[in-house]
Amino acid sequence: MFKIKRLCFDKNRLIDLFECSKSFNSFNNSFIKFYKSKLPILRLLLLRNIRFIYLNKKVIGYFWFEKIYERTYSIKDFVINNTAGLAQVLEKSTAKSGFFTKGLFIYECEDNTFNNTILNTLGFKKSGETLLMERSIEDKYIENVPSNISFSLMENNKDENLRCNLQNNIFEDDSRIPLTIDDIYYDQCQDYYLENASIFIKSYDEYVGYGQIILNNDSYFIVNLGIVKEQRGKGFSTYLLNHLINVCYDKGIKSIYIRVDQQNEIAKKLYLNNGFKFVNTVGIWEQ
Question: Where would I find the N-acetyltransferase domain in this sequence (predicted)?
Answer without folding.
Answer: 149-287
